[in-house]
Amino acid sequence: MVKSFFWASSARHSTTAAASMAVSLPMVRPLGYLKAMTPRLVPPQICWRRHLSTIYSQKPERVPLPANLPKEFYSQLPERLRPDNEPRKIDVIPPPPSACSVCKDPVATVTASQLAILDPTGERKALFDYRRNPRSVKAGDILRVTFKSGDPFSGVCLGIRLRGIDTSFLLRNQLTRVGVEMWIKVFSPNVGSVEIVQRTEKRKRRARLYYMRKPEHDMGSVENIVQNYLRQKSALTGQPISKSRGR
Amino acid sequence: MIQLKTMVNCIDNSGAAVVECIKVLRKKGPARIGDRIVVVVQKQRNFGPESGTNSGIANKVRRGDIRHAVVVRARKEIQRRDGSVIKFDDNACVLINKSGDPIGTRLNGIVGAELRNKHWSKILSLAPLHL
């Protein structure tokens, strides 16, 4: 009998033989390959009859590998069946350290570092922090901003946007009888100074005074108020008014 | 944002008071401060009852004239490089000839400082104020 390592090749033959044995006796397969010697025992027309359909047979059981199989036989086996075959080692690269562990809140860190450069004393921040500082700029105040380039701009503050380093405020004025509005960044290095010319008499009940764009609420030009303020300031400090057009 | 059919104030002494934009030049989309546009004069400025004959001020343009112009103020806010945003309450322009020189000799009104970047220095020098 031929012995295979994997499948008992004879198993299928024996089951078919068993199944056909019930039907007809001559299908019994002779033991020990006697059939080869006695071909005339089986009628030829039965021997050569073939069917297209396959008789169901159970899946043959697996024949285990013999224990202590010598190494030199391994090459005859497919690789996955060799006893020394192990699953391939996959290198697992650890994930890079999370940026969250390096810096919890990068926006706050950047804001703080930029504020340290642009506003080291914290004076400018306090001037516009209207939620916490009661003495800060409020909507409705008249402000005068002097840029580093020298030209001033003054106007009514229509609103303050508190956005960390991007904090800005909106000034409105009328120059040559044309309304002009300007959003100015509080911490911009171009801004030299911000002065409060006049505070609003009554606290405004709106955060944004956009209604002042309408003609019935427009303050018009604040030039006179600013000129008065500059005159008073120069009288107090004893310095002449810097040459500017009061805008 | 000045585009086709926008009525723009004319702030020079060329004689036009209100002009209508009919084309934005060298640009896709609406014109902003410093852009060149083509306009039709819609309303003339009248310098007194007997203007044009004996007084020195004559209307250099007439109603229906097609001229080039530069936008000097715009209602649409414009952001500067330093983050500040500027906005005027009206749209205004200055008439120019084909070579880019202003037709009028005086401007009455503030103009945007963006003209400097666009090399309209002649208009800037005529303007009483720029911002």
Automatic annotation (TrEMBL), chain A:
GO cellular component: mitochondrial large ribosomal subunit
Family membership noted in the UniProt record: Belongs to the bacterial ribosomal protein bL19 family.
Keyword Ribosomal protein: yes
Any single biological process term in GO: translation
The protein's name in its UniProt record: Ribosomal protein L19
Keyword vocabulary terms for this entry: Ribonucleoprotein, Ribosomal protein
GO molecular function, one term: structural constituent of ribosome
UniProt keyword annotation of Ribonucleoprotein present: yes
TrEMBL record, chain B:
UniProt record, GO biological process: translation
Key words of the record: Ribonucleoprotein, Ribosomal protein
GO molecular function, one term: structural constituent of ribosome
The keyword RNA-binding appears for this protein: no
Domain of life from the UniProt record: Eukaryota
Any coiled-coil regions, as ranges: none
Gene Ontology CC: mitochondrial large ribosomal subunit
Segment forming the signal sequence: none
SUPFAM superfamilies given in the database record: Ribosomal protein L14 (SSF50193)
Segments crossing the lipid bilayer: none
Keyword Ribosomal protein included in the entry's annotation: yes
Pfam families: Ribosomal_L14
PROSITE patterns registered for this protein in UniProt: RIBOSOMAL_L14
Primary role: Component of the mitochondrial ribosome (mitoribosome), a dedicated translation machinery responsible for the synthesis of mitochondrial genome-encoded proteins, including at least some of the essential transmembrane subunits of the mitochondrial respiratory chain. The mitoribosomes are attached to the mitochondrial inner membrane and translation products are cotranslationally integrated into the membrane.
Sequence similarity: Belongs to the universal ribosomal protein uL14 family.
PANTHER family: 50S/60S RIBOSOMAL PROTEIN L14/L23, LARGE RIBOSOMAL SUBUNIT PROTEIN UL14M
Protein name per the record: Large ribosomal subunit protein uL14m
Organism field: Elaphomyces granulatus
